[in-house]
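User: I'm preparing a small set of examples for a lab meeting where we compare how different chains pack in three dimensions. I only have the primary sequence for this one, and I'd like the structure in token form so I can line it up with the others. Please keep the answer compact; I'll paste it straight into my notes.
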Amino acid sequence: MYKVSMVSLGCPKNQVDAEQMLYTLQNAGFELTPAEADADAIIINTCGFIESAKAEAIENILEAAKYKDEGKLKALIVTGCLAEKYQNDVTEEIPEVDVCVGIGSNGKIAEIVKNAIEGKCKNSFGDKCDLDLNAKRILGGAPYTAYLKVADGCNNCCTYCAIPKIRGKMRSRTIEDCVTEAKELAKNGVRELIVVAQDTTAYGSDIYGKPMLSALLKELCKIEGIHWIRTLYTYPDKIDDELLDTIKSEEKLVKYLDIPIQHVNSEILKKMNRKGSRKDLEALIKKIRAKIPEITLRTTLITGFPTETEEQFEELCEFVKETRFDRLGCFAYSPEEDTIAAEMDGQVDEQTKVSRAENIMEMQMDIMREKNEEKIETVLEVIIEGWDDYIKCYFGRTVCDAPDVDGKIFFMSDRPLIIGDFVRVQINDCLDYDLLGELTI
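Assistant: Understood. Below is the structure token output for the 441-residue chain.
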């Protein structure tokens, strides 16, 4: 029996692809192992979204290649967005890689791995539409939390983004298929469901003729065993009253919205091929907070987009100060090959891009500290994620926090607790992005 180890990088959507490949491999008789030194084959499931992700992928590939000399490794295989984007260039430029596999060939991963171990190395790039969105999975993370990928690809064509070329046009799953998978996840112990797609608010428009996220969320809320449902990647121009009413009325839907706005200056937004304006964004956020006062709002921003002036950056800073997002991530613009923005005149120098992003994050740190201080003496629902042996307390996430991208809460308890359970915790203090508290009775 051959042993296979996998390293999956990048976003939650890529993680789902990795989990589907793991199921295919195990079902074909491979033994899955976290120990790379013991593996006959190592798969690096890559992200290729921005330059830093490509650098991380290459670093992981070269690190894994060492096991050809130090371990029993016979085949090093690269999958994911980097593989799909660069295809045969991967094996040509990185000779340590034995096989490169595009996303359309994920379903053939067992055959590809077996052949590679036996010395029959051949790159494979199937049609993007051959990626089976309904394939079974083995969860690679915590058993109580799972991502539900409801669509793949994207139709938005933002000028800085290569995803439409890498993943193709948006393909939604049916509501029935999404619900079937969610029920299976709940049956296997998943308590928190996180709905993802490249543009989650566009879900269903390709197969139903209109966005169907609200309808899907209502069906997911009926599933026994699921306690929290949160949604990521909701685009501002597609957030409507129906979606907000659904979030407000459905108890299982955490009052949390991830809205990637990227910028607020109208000229920059137009060059990004993003819809709306600062005025539109301000009106939307005002409406959301009026309808759901307890909502947690997260966003992502890009600084240093081509032609961004100091004045346009200051407008973004002003907006951040005024809006006071609960959660925010900011990234320096990265010019990606085969994107319109990469060919634009007026590219901003790297130091300026990074400095602007750091300035935004410093502002957000102050906002977060103030917002966390406002939570002191309140009680929040928390999912227990583990025990910190160093500081001798439990840690987890509140309803306000998504995995990996947001903060944590560290809390004391006089009694043993079960990982994955939901408890209520009184907030006593805060530390930067994290909260400190104690279990309530």
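A couple of notes for your slides: The mean pLDDT is 93. The chain has 15 helices and 18 strands.

User: Perfect, thanks.
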